[in-house]
Specification:
Elements: H1 3-13, H2 21-30, H3 34-44, H4 48-53, H5 55-71
Helix pairs in contact: 1-2
Amino acid sequence: MTDRDRAVLAVERRSWSGPGAKERAIRERLGLSPTRYYQLLNALLDDPRALAHDPVTVNRLRRVREARRSRR
């Protein structure tokens, strides 16, 4: 995993107060657009290295993703 991959997971571990706070942090801390951030995050959820690095966050996000898919 790259430093950027670990930083993406670290952003997801935090709780965010107020609208736009997370998107602002994504731009400022990672230098990414929110769209690109979510593309990277989605790919990380399928990466076994990400699961080994942060199983709680990855499993939680996998459950959220699966719930959204099943509602479609």
